[in-house]
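I'd like us to work through together how a protein chain folds, taking it slowly. To get us started, please write out a protein record for me. Label the sequence line and the structure token line clearly, so we can match residues to local backbone shapes. Once you have written the record down, we can walk along the chain together.
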Amino acid sequence: MDEDFLLNSKSAKILYHDYVKDLPLYDFHCHLSPQQIAEDHRFENITDVWLKGDHYKWRAMRAFGIDEELITGSAGDKEKFHAWIQTVPYTMGNPLYHWSHLELKKYFDYDDVIKEENWEELWDRLNQVVQADSFSARKLIKNSNVKVICTTDDPADSLEYHIQIAADEAVEAKVLPTFRPDKGLGISAAGYQDYIQSLGKAAGVEINSYEIFLRALENRVEFFHENGCRISDHGFEYLPYVETSIEEAAEIFQRALAGETISKGEEEKHKTFTMQFLGELYAKHEWAMQLHIGPLRNNNSRMFEKVGPDAGFDSINDFELARPLNQFLNSLDAKAVLPRTIVYPLNPAHFEMVASTIGNFQSGGIKGKVQFGSGWWYNDTKEGMLRQMKELANAGLLSLFVGMLTDSRSFLSYTRHDYFRRILCQLVGTWIEEGELPADYEFIGKMVQDISYNNAKEYFTIELD
């Protein structure tokens, strides 16, 4: 895994080393903890920074037959580290193999192959780095050359840590919230009434009607905007689109507040109307709207009861997306209130369709206004990234792509940007080598730079120094 890792041609090497290698990172979607950044969190050991919260690694360990006690259970951190090191050599072909080696190489200067034979020596060596003064949440961000970090935040959040970060001149990166109102849309979820109370408290109102609910969301959008937010995010198992009137939406909401059973169709109406309201609000504030579509969550009920959500028991959903996606985007575009929008399909079967759909709603004044988002979750593999970029290139303009993000809870996952850039340069370099593009490195190199950083910088309305 040397400096030319994944770069298998002269052109790929030129594009990577001369044009993108040293560019800063623009991480516009992640799940890092604002509290850990605000407090410049120090990690207890390598397990704390490398394995905790990483359900990608947890899934691999389970597949390898590791007992749950050594994954999310009560086993010690050293034992959990050993279990992961046992697993790594067998992740051949999985991006975890590359990611794990890249992480150790970049942050721990470890160039050897990860093997079980020397796991205790490795445990001691890595922990020496973790416990050094130069290793903390903020220092990892700085050493990764990150310029922008957009976390994922609930509308009811006080944003206290974001406010603290913004007031701290020692934090060089822009660390901003992202508005994620999924709980407000999950009208039939357990605990919905309690959530509405917390949302009302944050907005300073008592939510006892749909009108006040919408007003509360608008209040929180304003609050997030005042604190630097310029991006929203939405997660859907499938994207619903069922038109309804505000009167019917209000009646459904009122019944949900009363604890009555809400049908699937009624919930879809509530989500559709509320998303249309939010989309218009985002356009007004010049925000970007992210749509993450397609995970089927918490499929293992036994393990959900044991370890809870976001623990590695989610998979790809299958459903119709073309019609509702076009209908939703059109409902906003028809009123000239479609915001900048990024669509992330989890199911690869939707890639060609999404690549064709975004071309229906572009407009003058904003290059690549509607985007086909980067390979996400099960698609941030080498093949998944290549598939996404090729489908985008086939149906649209790859040159306007806003590029990669981490979508991670780990401060070590910034290596995914480098992984992406190497794959991008190899793809475009191959096109040059095979005569499909001219060997105009200055011009092509500029486009690769744009995809790696500049397009995101231009696309999002976030002011940088």
Summary: The beta strands are 25-27, 146-150, 174-176, 231-236, 288-293, 295-296, 315-316, 340-345, 370-372. The mean pLDDT is 97. The radius of gyration is 23 Å. The first strand starts at residue 25 and ends at 27.
